[in-house]
């Protein structure tokens, strides 16, 4: 009898004192499973419509306009409930819903990125070798190069022609379209290749996109296949070879977003880093039907995968100018606004992969179906390069998530000294804005086909909504 009582006390104390999170499916509210499915159908459409930053901006603007947003006019007075956006050169997008409080009391910002790793065409890409036509590529972002061979690819982008007019390219998405591919060596002849290290199994200069093989007409001479390809491009887009110089063409995986697993609990698709958080922020913002307490801002940034530099990256003054224009619309000080603002740097993290357990530290890893994942810090080798959110900021986010029944977890990328990563968080924090990282755990991050758990996708949206409406 005595012993049983003690055990009960221990059990009770464990419940009170231990931190022991459970699977998110055990913590869902009534009817939430259906909401997850509905949300993820919209997300899959977003993935299929936006495979490049330009396409994401176009699609997001269409959704925003349908939700009553209009372009911000510099100098205009802004009132609570006003919904405005600014298209930054077609590659990044800034949106805001004006709050009831002045911007001098700060904004709530969700910042995610819409660029993803891919194979960019070089500026002089097209050539013929042994009567096969290829385009040279220069990879964009951190990729394992061998993963981009022997998969169907689509060609997306824009060409600015000699006369200054531009034409949009999107080949390989319609079922009637042709697609493209990068080749790899047959195993029968791969004896030497098999001895190479991962980074050199396929070199960057071997990532050549196959584009055709049929010679032009019965024409004599060399480069007849290349001529055939240029003729098609000229007929379809009115372009000549020189126009490649002022083009941005990129090869991206042609596959569509699909459900993965017999239970359909996971989404498989290209570009989920970081369109999964971009969609969460955007959707949460577009659903603000009345003026929130504080002004809600959503940033869809470009160039995160290559350092957030450039005019459309998160380091660009474009963000400061947008915020400054918003502040001017209320005669508020930008300095005061930044000082009191809060930013969720919404970006993906690595999900624990039991097949590669050796790189993870299981007590501090993110797990599928355990919800949106907060990262107090990122970085590598002793938190180098991290924007370390303060205990106060983590505490505040914890409280808000708990109040709004958001299923969440907190984790690091992997084992200390195993590697590391970064996000846009440091660029927001450097502006004197309290910032924390949070987002969806991903398996096979940066691969042509990444996977995420539907529950975590939905919870990231729910988290963003909780912050916007708090
Ligand atoms: Mn990312
Ligand atoms: Mn990334």
Q: How would you describe this protein?
A:
With 470 residues, the chain is of the alpha+beta class. 29% of the residues lie in helices and 24% in strands. A nine-stranded mixed beta sheet has the order 1-2-3-14-4-15-21-17-19, with helices on both faces. A seven-stranded antiparallel beta sheet has the order 8-7-11-5-6-10-9. It has a five-stranded mixed beta sheet with strand order 12-13-23-22-16. A hairpin with a 5-residue loop joins β7 and β8. The longest helix has 18 residues, at 32-49. The mean pLDDT is 96. Bound molecules: manganese (II) ion (2 copies). One manganese (II) ion binds at residues 113, 273-274, 304, 347-348.
Sheet-strand content, in percent, reads: 15-25%
Question: Low-confidence parts lasting 5 or more residues at pLDDT below 50?
Answer: none
Q: Order of strands across the biggest sheet?
A: 1-2-3-14-4-15-21-17-19
What is the radius of gyration computed over CA atoms, rounded to a whole number of angstroms? 24 Å
Rounded average pLDDT: 96
Determine the structural class based on helices, strands and strand pairing.
Answer: alpha+beta
Distance between the termini: 49 Å
Largest β sheet strand count, sense and barrel closure: 9 strands, mixed
Q: Helical percent range?
A: 25-40%
Report the total helices.
Answer: 12
Please tally the β strands and state the result.
23
Bound molecules: manganese (II) ion
**Gross geometry:** globular
């Amino acid at each position: 009898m005595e012993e049983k009582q003690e055990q009960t006390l221990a059990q009770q104390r464990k419940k009170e004192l231990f931190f022991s999170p459970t699977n998110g499916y055990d913590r869902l509210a009534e009817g939430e499973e259906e909401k997850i499915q509905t949300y993820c159908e919209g997300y899959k459409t977003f993935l299929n419509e936006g495979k490049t930053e330009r396409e994401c901006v176009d699609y997001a603007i269409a959704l925003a306009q349908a939700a009553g947003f209009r372009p911000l006019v510099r100098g205009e007075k802004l009132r609570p409930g006003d919904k405005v956006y600014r298209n930054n050169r077609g590659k990044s997008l800034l949106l805001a819903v004006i709050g009831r409080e002045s911007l001098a009391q700060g904004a709530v910002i969700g910042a995610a990125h819409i660029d993803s790793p891919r194979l960019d065409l070089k500026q002089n890409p097209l050539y013929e070798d042994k009567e096969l036509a290829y385009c040279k590529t220069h990879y964009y972002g951190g990729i394992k190069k061998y993963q981009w061979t022997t998969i169907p690819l689509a060609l997306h982008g824009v060409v600015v022609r000699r006369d200054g007019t531009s034409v949009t390219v999107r080949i390989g998405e319609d079922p009637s379209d042709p697609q493209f591919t990068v080749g790899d060596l047959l195993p029968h002849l791969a004896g030497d290749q098999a001895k190479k290290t991962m980074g050199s199994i396929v070199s960057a200069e071997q990532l050549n996109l196959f584009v055709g093989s049929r010679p032009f007409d019965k024409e004599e001479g060399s480069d007849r296949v290349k001529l055939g390809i240029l003729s098609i491009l000229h007929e379809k887009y009115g372009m000549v070879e020189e126009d490649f110089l002022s083009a941005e063409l990129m090869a991206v995986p042609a596959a569509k977003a699909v459900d993965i697993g017999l239970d359909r609990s996971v989404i498989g698709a290209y570009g989920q880093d970081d369109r999964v958080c971009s969609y969460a922020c955007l959707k949460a913002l577009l659903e603000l039907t009345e003026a929130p307490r504080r002004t809600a801002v959503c940033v869809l940034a470009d160039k995160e995968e290559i350092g957030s530099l450039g005019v459309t990256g998160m380091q660009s003054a474009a963000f400061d100018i947008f915020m400054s224009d918003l502040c001017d619309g209320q005669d508020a000080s930008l300095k005061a606004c930044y000082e009191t603002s809060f930013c969720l740097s919404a970006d993906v993290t690595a999900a624990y992969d039991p097949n590669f357990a050796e790189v993870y530290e299981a007590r501090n890893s993110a797990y599928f179906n355990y919800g949106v994942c907060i990262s107090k810090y990122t970085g590598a080798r002793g938190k180098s390069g991290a924007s370390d959110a303060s205990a106060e900021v983590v505490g505040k986010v914890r409280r808000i998530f708990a109040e709004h029944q958001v299923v969440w977890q907190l984790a690091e990328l992997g084992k200390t000294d195993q590697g590391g990563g970064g996000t846009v968080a440091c660029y927001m924090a450097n502006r004197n804005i309290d910032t924390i990282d949070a987002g969806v755990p991903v398996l096979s991050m940066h691969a042509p086909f990444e996977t995420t758990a539907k529950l975590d996708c939905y919870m990231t949206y729910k988290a963003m909504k909780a912050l916007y409406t708090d």
